[in-house]
Amino acid sequence: MNDSTPRQKEKMINRNLIKTVLSHAIFLPCFMVTHTYADIVGTPSINVTFTSTIEAGTCATVLKDASGATASVIDFKDVFRSDLDKKNRKEDFKIVFSSCAGVKSANITTAQSSCSGGASDGDSFANSGGTAAATAVEIWKEQPDSGVQFSCKNKGSGQNIALTSASDTEVNLTARMVIAKGRSASEVTAGSFSAPVTFLITYQ
Predict the structure, then answer these.
(1) What pLDDT is recorded for position 51?
(2) pLDDT digits (tens, 9 = 90+) for 84-122
């Protein structure tokens, strides 16, 4: 027999309710978020040094005869006095530029050589290493008379050549045997002929 009073029953219910609530409650820990604010300081500057090696532009250059063979001597073989008088003895050759890098053009001139003429004032190059008198050789870009002559007396004129790295550049030249300036066919004597000529190449 339950003899509890209504007030006692109410207290018991409240205690049970508190127990039930406490048994299901989740207690979260208390914590505090803190942060210290500092001044923003960035890098004021960055130093850099650029380095490189500057190379002189250039090409591989060879001289070839009419057959396409690399040569340092252009041989006219036997030449007759009448050939000199008629100016009909010539030999084709060429300067070949290849593997060009860092250049767009070249200027070709001739170095100091013996010029024909009594005052060495001729456009042709005199026979300076042979025995045949009154003989000389002309050098032309392309063909004689229609092309442009390399002048012995005016070496600074030169020839400008456009170059490309994509392919070889060939400069067609012609050498023609002639009677030296101020001389006549009657003064030509039999003998050897040699006229060393140096081509100077300035790359641009």
Answers:
(1) 64
(2) 999 999 999 999 999 999 899 999 999 867 999 999 999
Map tokens 């392309």 to a residue: 142
What is the count of structural domains for the chain? 1
- Range of the structural domain that residue 164 is part of: 58-203
Is position 28 within any domain? no
Beta carbons within 10 angstroms of residue 187's beta carbon: 13
Span 30-57, pLDDT tens digits: 445 455 555 666 777 788 877 677 767 8
CATH number at 71 reads 2.60.40.1090
Residue pair 87/149 in contact (Cβ under 8 Å)? The answer is: no
Alpha-helical runs (H) found in 50-140 = 81-86
Question: How many CA atoms lie less than 13 Å away from 30 in the CB half-sphere?
Answer: 0
H-type alpha helices, 25-156: 81-86
Task: Give the integer Cα–Cα distance in Å for 21 and 27.
Answer: 12
| Identity of the residue numbered 112 | Q
What is the helix (H) or strand (E) element at residue 15, kind and residue range? helix 6-24
- Is pTM beyond 0.85 here? no
- Domain membership of residue 49 (yes or no) is no
